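Exam revision sheet. Question 4 asks you to relate a sequence to its structure. Input first:
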Amino acid sequence: MTSVPIINPGLAARKWLRVYSVFFADALAYKANAFVWMMTDAVPAFIMPLLWLSSFNGRAQIHGYTPSQMVIYYIAVLFLASAVDSHIMWDMAADVKSGKFNTYLIRPYSYIAYCGAANLSWRLVRTVMFIPLFAAILWVFRKWVHFDGAGYDYGWHFWLAILLGHILSFSISYALGLVALWVVETQSLYHFYYLPLIILNGQLAPLIFFPKVLREIALFLPFSYTLGFPAQIFIHGIGERTILFGFGMQIAWTVVAIVGAIGLWRGGLKRYTAYGI
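Answer key, structure tokens:
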């Protein structure tokens, strides 16, 4: 009779806590790298509100956005970029190319869980380091930012959109990282991915400001559902039906990314030739 292995929840929790602490310490060791990434995200959040504020030119609204809503939208996107966006594929590709990926195949936990722990630790470090910069930007735009709670949505729609947006971003970046098992050079692919991502994820402008054709196409692509979608919920920029549609798209694209990752993993392991060893 085959015995069933008994899983010790306490031991498993301690194991993952140790793995997470290692990643957290590693993330703290690269504070300069985190600062560069933060400044890359902060520049649009500082420049774009200034451009839009000058564009209002005395008008109360542009496409339904008041000057205050426009400023708060970009500040929300800036915060979400630190907490939600995942870029794990760069590290995954580097590990495959160097041969370090081999060590992960023999460790007693799944590779996706390992990448998830790395991603969460990096998100936490970036978010904590981002607080002073966030406070500085709030101070610069203090005239248009009010904390009376009016017009802001802190409800479950907002937090669920953040959670699903992060899962979606991680799932896509994880699938892209597994492409490194199939091809030697992935940087060109990743740079190409960032082109529509930066344009359509909401960092440049809310989708309502894009041409109608591009806006309708973007609604069925995953990019806007990581940053722009939660930010629009926060400022009450979209209605209930649009919110439910957005949740559906977040879940659908996450499923697509996970299914794609499974296929890339299974086929990639058969092709993997231990680069760098």
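Marking note for examiners. The mean pLDDT is 83.
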